[in-house]
Amino acid sequence: MITVPFTFVATVAAIYYTGAKPVFVDIDPRTFTIDVKAIEGAITDRTKAIIPVHLTDSRRTWIHPGNRKRHGLVVIEDAAQAHGAEYKGIEWAV
Predict the structure, then answer these.
(1) Cα-flanking dihedrals φ and ψ of residue 66, to 5°?
(2) Rounded to an integer, what distance in angstroms lies between the CA atom of residue 86 and that of residue 94?
(3) pLDDT tens-digit readout, 18-43
(4) What is the model's pTM?
């Protein structure tokens, strides 16, 4: 599973608890969330999921549907640290 090292330990622990191995990619220095450009280079035939971690009110990470479909990946949104986040006026991480 692809994720970022800039997160709380529980994100990585959850990956290990499933028997999977975390694969870390860098963060975007502007948003402090997963660098979507780095994801493509980290995908292998063993990759099953991408876990972007949303911080504070940041929901700027967008995983292109083409990457998900082409590689058959699941995207698991980790919003545990996105307290008070809103998107188009709707709270989505309460």
Answers:
(1) -60, -40
(2) 9
(3) 999 999 999 988 888 888 889 989 99
(4) 0.81
